[in-house]
Amino acid sequence: MITNVSHGIKSNFLSHVLSEDGFGYVHSIFTNSFNVLFKDQLIHFSETGKELSSFGIGIPSNQWKKLLTSIKVEDRVKSRQNNWMIYARQITWKLELDKFNEIDCKIPKIDEINPKLIYNLKNNFQSLGIDEKTELVANERDQLFIEEFLDANWENHEFFQQFVAHFLGRGIGLTPSGDDMLMGMIMMSNSFSMPMEWSSFILTQLERTQTTKVSDAYYKALLSGYISTQFVSLLQIIKDKKMTDWNEAISRIADYGHTSGWDTLFGIFLFLQKLEKSLS
Questions:
Q1: Domain that holds residue 204
Q2: Residue 267: which region, alpha, beta or left (left: phi > 0; alpha: psi -120 to 50)?
């Protein structure tokens, strides 16, 4: 039995990594989503109407639950000419990805960098009480690295390499807290077009330190300039100065994972603190 899925949504990052035919498999299944591993690229599947991952595909609500409950880990997946076949035990799912709507997950560019803007943004984040909601700082060494980050010169590449080496993969869960924080910093650096060498720091460290497959996929998309839709919305609010939507955007991020959303917001907050100091 073959069931067609002829509409849905997909991140525009995937056009860069899913152009070839080949085989994959269902990598992991969760309560409300699942991942497929295809040619060393993780693809996140969720229901439309939910936040879309930077490497994600959204399946229509009327077919989502049946798809999610029919699959098992290691079920085979085949890609051929933009059609994906997921071979579940009793149903074969045919996803016509070329008909799916592409969602723009590129990092919005914030053109204006001035002390007043940064000061106001920092205060907005500070008012959230992020320090109490993140699980990143576990010991004195973590705290010392963060304090040194705030004081370090942007050109101090030796320190930033040490900083990345300390926090990459640090913590537990699908995306460790250290990765979430680093991703918050990198997305802000990219959005403000700061001339940082995050890519080389991260890629070098990934060769030395193992993190989760999910974090690795997020890093891959982020270093290519793509983020999940809840962060696209937040940066677009900052870019447009449309603060009436601020609380809703923060709430959507905070709901992501156990502390992943707050850990990423903590990284954004630290970056803003450092940027404010460098502009004063």
A1: 115-279
A2: alpha
Q: Which residue positions in the chain have pLDDT lower than 70?
A: 257
pTM for this prediction: 0.94
Q: Are residues 131 and 73 in the same domain?
A: no
**How many Cα atoms are found within 13 Å in the side-chain-facing hemisphere of 129?**
2
Q: Retrieve residue 42's tokens.
A: 């993780």
Q: Same structural domain for residues 270 and 138?
A: yes
Give the rounded distance of the alpha carbon of 132 from its chain centre. Answer: 22
Quick check: is 110 in a domain? no
Kind and range of the H or E run holding 223: helix 213-223
Hunting for tokens 């009327």 — which residue is that? 62
Q: What's the distance, CA 123 to chain centroid?
A: 24
Residues ≥6 apart with Cβ < 8 Å to 120: none
pLDDT per residue over 26-58, tens digit each?
A: 999 999 999 999 988 999 999 999 999 999 999
Give CA 235 to chain center in angstroms. 13
